[in-house]
Amino acid sequence: MSMLKNPAVKYRPFPAYDFSERTWPNRRMTAPPIWMSTDLRDGNQALIEPMNGERKLRMFEKLVEIGFKEIEVGFPSASQTDFDFIRSLVVEDRVPDDVTIEVLTQSREDLIRRTIDSVQGARRAIVHLYNAIAPDFRRIVFNMTREEVKQVALNGTRLIRELTAARPETEWVFQYSPEVFSSAELDFAKEVCDAVVEAWGATPGRKIILNLPATVECAMPNVYADQIEWMHRNLARRDSIVLSVHPHNDRGTAVAAAEMAVLAGADRIEGCLFGNGERTGNVDIVTLALNLYSQGIAPGLDFSDIDDVRRCVEYCNQLPVHPRHPYVGDLVFTAFSGSHQDAIKKGFAQRKPDTFWDVPYLPIDPADLGRSYDAVIRVNSQSGKGGVSYLLQQEHGLDLPRRLQIEFSRAIQRVTDETGREVSAGDVYAIFRREYLDVDQPYRFVGHRIASVDGGVRVEVDVRHGGKPRTLTGVGNGPIDAFVHALGMPVRMMDYHEHSIGVGADATAACYVEVRIGESPTGFGVGVDSDIVTASFKAVLSAVNRHAREAAGEDEQTEAQPELID
Ligand SMILES: CC(=O)SCCNC(=O)CCNC(=O)[C@H](O)C(C)(C)COP(=O)(O)OP(=O)(O)OC[C@H]1O[C@@H](n2cnc3c(N)ncnc32)[C@H](O)[C@@H]1OP(=O)(O)O
Ligand SMILES: CC(C)C(=O)C(=O)O
């Protein structure tokens, strides 16, 4: 089998709605919805290896810590593990007062009874009933008419009403999901939902949760939003309903569908952390929450240590989170490409505390999620001077002048081109040392003395030249000028920069000189020392030595076998 030339013979387009009264496209989200985590149910039922009791408890505690107030803790009639776990939460009093646990059941008497038994004695519980109502399911799975499908929902609702009424020690909330809602006829979805709301006896003071799932995402998110707004406006007792959505991600647009559904009138969203769940997953609540956060709206969920949440989820689900996953993936706050690095570096440099976040390419501050800036800029063959110099600045306090950035990034580029590998911050520094700081042939600095003379200074600089001790003496209008004279070479100083690294007694000085020797192209030298004059002499010798190395053709030889640290 391969892809069809004409897929229209096999697949139907989703029918369009004539719903011109829609208002959701003009709305804005201004507050978070009620969040419901279904990690321990829809997430769990989709795992290769469902969670055991220990993993379930770990996930539950993490969900509570994050701030979820409604947590679907399982499908208690499905397995003894689920049932026992839910019992342990209740019996061991592990559910905080402000958190409500939820349990799911099919509309079958034995399963409903077992489900209610599982939460016996809970302070508050949501019993969640579902049955599929879409035409395909009526025809293929149940072989039932519309009326029969409606009766399945009503029978379950009435039984749950009766069983919960007999257990007044628990505050019961009822939730109904017309499964595959988004593929069902809207008039039929309304008919079933209105009947269920009636049968439960919902009132504004005793609301029912009506959850309208995109069990299989089969249309664009705007279509789902239209369906939700239509229900929102047409349900008979909207004031007695918490309207909930439950998007899956088959088309990759679950997040958009959930956001648009809230614009369309939904009060509540069900989903899983990092989008785990059946097939391509349930909607990712982390992305939804942080999308809100990035718009200045507190989501009511705390992802201040997002890596810790990810570790917990990966442990419990035994599934990895993708490196590109929004907000959490290893690479999502990382820029490899040169122009991005350049813009980010400038963004950080111009950033002032307590102002709006305006760093190009970074929609939110990684630090808010407990992510460090260390990994923001990483260097490979796609990188430019901005990223390279950012790493030197961040890790070693070296603030390279612009033209040196350009010169040095060529040295890095040669390495990344030759190896095809990323270079770490440690590699960048090692290459910088090799290129500028550790070049001590033919001259190696040993020490110096300075004295004032008429109109300037006189310097004596001890060096090893070709391995032998020598003292160079010169006079000039300043120490560098005097040292250049002492060298007795046609060295012209083109540019000079210095800055301190660190503060206080431990501070050192970095000095950058750009020189022209004879008629050669200009080149840089760098010196670092606790004494600023020594740093400048070292910088001059670095430039002279690099020039000599270049002239001797050693440069290429050294770089032909780059050694990366990592
Ligand atoms: C979209 C969702 O995610 S919904 C949640 C789905 N999650 C799960 O199914 C995970 C847990 N489920 C299970 O472990 C099992 O399905 C159980 C234990 C609940 C039930 O297992 P079984 O009794 O073997 O039945 P099975 O799951 O195969 O169900 C099929 C039967 O239930 C009926 N059924 C399916 N859903 C429902 C429903 N919501 N209400 C009433 N009957 C239903 C089917 O029509 C079918 O009936 P038939 O046997 O007369 O043809
Ligand atoms: C039970 C329902 C809400 C469900 O999981 C789905 O439709 O995906």
Automatic annotation (TrEMBL):
It catalyses: 3-methyl-2-oxobutanoate + acetyl-CoA + H2O = (2S)-2-isopropylmalate + CoA + H(+). Its EC number is 2.3.3.13. Keywords: Amino-acid biosynthesis, Branched-chain amino acid biosynthesis, Cytoplasm, Leucine biosynthesis, Magnesium, Metal-binding, Transferase. It comes from the Bacteria. Residues 33-307 form the Pyruvate carboxyltransferase domain. Mg(2+) binds at D42, H246, H248, N282. Catalyzes the condensation of the acetyl group of acetyl-CoA with 3-methyl-2-oxobutanoate (2-ketoisovalerate) to form 3-carboxy-3-hydroxy-4-methylpentanoate (2-isopropylmalate). PANTHER family: 2-ISOPROPYLMALATE SYNTHASE, PTHR46911. This is 2-isopropylmalate synthase. It comes from Pigmentiphaga soli.
